[in-house]
Amino acid sequence: MTTTRATPSIAQVALIGLFVTALVTAQLTASKILAFELPFAVPITGAELLLPGAALAYALTFLASDCYAELYGRKAAQIVVNVAFAMNFVVLLLVWSTIIAPASETSPVAAGEFAAVLGPAANIVAGSLLAYLVSQNWDVIVFHRIREYTDGERLWLRNIGSTASSQAIDTVIFVSVAFAIAPRLFGVGVAIPLEAVLGLMIGQYLLKLAIAVVDTPFVYAIVAIVRSRDGDGVEEPASA
């Protein structure tokens, strides 16, 4: 007896694609520290907001994972999260294989410049991978705990609540490992002043928290559109 596997919908593939695209972008842009001038002062950071270059891209992974978790369930979302974690190593392997390959004399980018820009520093890799593994799984778990507690209602609460808590975990782990622990304890990467570490944490978390609030209408819209088009096989709330 043969069984027929359901064909993934366009929406399902698109959400996975968005998740992976944002994740890979975050991996490649994490080492650049951005600085934005604010019209007001924030405690510790002052009027300058510091955040890693990957902050926006990484925040989009939570929008995609929350939509995916709402539509296809906790188990499916955790599969995507953990498979994508393994794919991080594929990205690193492909980038490093290109770095160590000999460069042509006609290459518009010198080998050293290419390695300096795209070569992921060990401290950044360690911080981002550890932060990703913990925070993304936490996000899926909390999302569904809130979902069960509210009987499938209040999508806004589980979107903001799960993302706010998981982003806090992600921010603390990534910034502390990448810019404080790994450089100071293991001599990997460049250590930045502790005040700057705190500034990075605050700046990154404020941006991610703002995105979690702003993206809530988009989560509602995406979920509603997908359910209207692909109702069969899509997980519905426990109550209307």
Outline the secondary-structure elements:
Elements lengths: L9 H20 L3 E10 L3 E7 L2 H18 L1 H27 L10 H8 L3 H28 L5 H32 L7 H21 L1 H14 L11
Antiparallel strand pairs: 1-2
Short recap of the structure:
This protein has 240 residues and is mainly alpha-helical. It has helices at residues 10-29, 55-72, 74-100, 111-118, 122-149, 155-186, 194-214, 216-229; strands spanning 33-42, 46-52.
Features:
7% strand, 240 residues, 2 strands, mainly alpha, two-stranded antiparallel sheet, 70% helix, disordered C terminus
Note down, in words, how this protein is organized.
With 240 residues, the protein is mainly α. It has one domain (10-229). The chain has helices at 10-29, 55-72, 74-100, 111-118, 122-149, 155-186, 194-214, 216-229; strands at 33-42, 46-52. The protein has a two-stranded antiparallel sheet. A hairpin with a 3-residue loop joins strand 1 and strand 2 (46-52). Helix 6 (155-186) runs antiparallel to helix 7. It is globular. It starts with 9 loop residues before the first helix and ends in an 11-residue tail after the last helix. The model is unreliable at 236-240 (pLDDT under 50).
Main beta sheet strand tally, sense and closure: 2 strands, antiparallel
Which structural category fits the helices and strands?
A: mainly alpha
Shape assignment: globular
Count of separate DSSP helical elements: 8
How many strand units?
2
Question: How many domains would you count in the coordinates?
Answer: 1
- What is the overall pLDDT average? 85
Order of helices and strands: HEEHHHHHHH
Helix content: over 70%
